[in-house]
Amino acid sequence: MHSHTAAYWAEKLDLLRHPEGGWFRETYRAAETIPEAGLPTRFQGERAFSTAIHFLLERDDFSALHRLKSDEVWHFYDGGPLTVHLMTPDGQYRPLRLGRDPEKGERFQAVAPAGCWFGAEVAAGPGDFALVGCTVAPGFDFSDFELAGQADLTGLFPQHAALIRRLTRE
């Protein structure tokens, strides 16, 4: 099996730095939109039916805890396994492990439901990066994106304080 490096994928996919950490490039935005009246009240304005990105995360970086108003489906492509750390609105923690080894609990797809806090890091094991894709429906809009504040999130979920410290940037 041929394995590429993070630098190879960043160049070939023309990736840009993402505000949450890692590197990304939008690859799809549906031409059709859902009018605001057809969306749940948490949305302001119309949204594309769906959007998709490539997302590259290196071992020495992390995707900071954030939440979206839409579901986000993560798809594994290359590199080492990736752990998506998920906290539900009621404080339950669930790790989602993406990768190519089902014997280790890894899977090719996982969903971060709307309203949950989540962040990611390259999991222990082989590989110094993970290349994934993320599909959002209704489509991603930066007004639906909220980065976690360390103090605020720790106040809500003190039982996850160590994880929150590790996966926030403030």
Q: Count the domains.
A: 1
CATH architect. name: Sandwich
The CATH class designation is Mainly Beta
Identify the strand order in the major beta sheet: 1-2-5-12-7-10
The run of helices and strands is HEEEEEEEEEEEEEHH
CATH topology: Jelly Rolls
Give the mean pLDDT.
95
Secondary-structure map with pairings?
Blueprint: H1 6-12, E1 16-17, E2 23-29, E3 33-34, E4 47-48, E5 51-58, E6 63-68, E7 71-79, E8 82-87, E9 93-98, E10 109-112, E11 117-122, E12 129-137, E13 145-147, H2 150-156, H3 161-166
Antiparallel strand pairs: 1-2, 2-5, 3-4, 5-12, 6-11, 6-13, 7-10, 7-12, 8-9, 8-11
Describe the protein:
The protein is mostly beta strands and 170 residues long. The protein has a single domain (6-145), classed as Jelly Rolls, CATH 2.60.120. The protein is built from three helices and 13 strands. The protein has helices spanning 6-12, 150-156, 161-166; strands spanning 16-17, 23-29, 33-34, 47-48, 51-58, 63-68, 71-79, 82-87, 93-98, 109-112, 117-122, 129-137, 145-147. A six-stranded antiparallel β-sheet has the order 1-2-5-12-7-10, with helices on one face. It has a five-stranded antiparallel β-sheet with strand order 9-8-11-6-13, with no helix packed on it. β1 (16-17) and β2 form a beta hairpin. It is globular. The termini are far apart.
